[in-house]
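Structure, all two chains, one model.
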Amino acid sequence: MCQACGVTAVGPLLLTAASPATRAALLAHGMVVPLTRGGVVLEQDAPADRLLILLQGSVGLHTTEDGGAATMVEIVAAGDALSIAAVLLQLPHPVSAVALAPGHLLSIPADDFRAAAAADAALMHAAMEQMARQWRLMVEQVVDLKTRDATQRAARFLLRRLPAQRGAVDLPEPRGAIAARLGMTPESLSRALHGLEDAGLLRLHGRRVDVPDRAALYRVSLPRAGASQGARRV
Amino acid sequence: MCQACGVTAVGPLLLTAASPATRAALLAHGMVVPLTRGGVVLEQDAPADRLLILLQGSVGLHTTEDGGAATMVEIVAAGDALSIAAVLLQLPHPVSAVALAPGHLLSIPADDFRAAAAADAALMHAAMEQMARQWRLMVEQVVDLKTRDATQRAARFLLRRLPAQRGAVDLPEPRGAIAARLGMTPESLSRALHGLEDAGLLRLHGRRVDVPDRAALYRVSLPRAGASQGARRV
């Protein structure tokens, strides 16, 4: 779509659900925005005047409560739409978002997206699927926080990025951001990763982690019986 | 609405958003279902063939992962629609639901609700607002789990049920369910509540808790600086 910036992986699931005419109209009004690590993507409580779809990269969602420190809520992966509920409902952004790695966003005016979704049932359906999926991801995180210790959570985080039976997982985000996503200190994350490496379950290479055997790492990621009663060791 | 069962508080926000004609049609096809504590309301992975709106009572959402133990994800309050995304998207229920207290549900055939939402933009808008709200609740829970210790989480849970400056909070659920919702053991919850009572911040009376000063309890609920880095004491 964009010869200038070199983005090739333009396949946001959301827009592929729209009719070709709807998609073309949205893309005609959209722009591709480059992201540099640390760049602010959107601010909590600001009006949701653009729909932002992450084409490439990694974005962290944070929420700040009553003037307290910001808490990392989620790391959004390429393909996801940021703040889609706020765009559809004309609400302020419930969270802020910061780029955790270089990448690109597709930015579409919120008015255009709302009009397109109202006119194109398949696009509206896809938008609601994204909302439902984002809820399920938060549910999974709640379950992880309640039932898994630091090592199990780190293992599960890696597994989610590894579709194959073995291979390399990219971790382009700062380690502190990953630790905050997992609800642990950077020191706990480092201990967990090195423990998994010592057990032969992965090999650390800076921003890349090699996983030789997905099934073995999966077994380590499982909570122990009774862990849902709240025993959590960080 | 229902002379037989005596339910008087029929004001689900979702249906009040619909036009009077839509609302009347949905209520004509709906039925009020009584809930007894421990009764299964819906089963994970079953088809979402009814929209269930909790009129009165308390329902716990659980998720079971890969044959493991069920984890309490959320406690749903009166007024909320269960599994609304699954109903709209014709997906299986992502979670199971169990009544934690006596109450009543309004049950509406999913086909009727989908047709009504497709025809009534205000109803669809309200349904999406519920989805967005449910996501925000999960975000809040993630933040609590990452930044608050057991006492702070217990205080926050009580505060959410206390709109006034002082007064009584009903806890009709089994204490074990509340503890699981808060990601702690029943023993930790008991310690937290008795600690708050010893500090003069509440008085325990079985299923009711009196809060003499909301502002004082609120101060205790705040996370300490730096807690977002993952220090969690249970």
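The first helix of chain B runs from residue 13 to 16.
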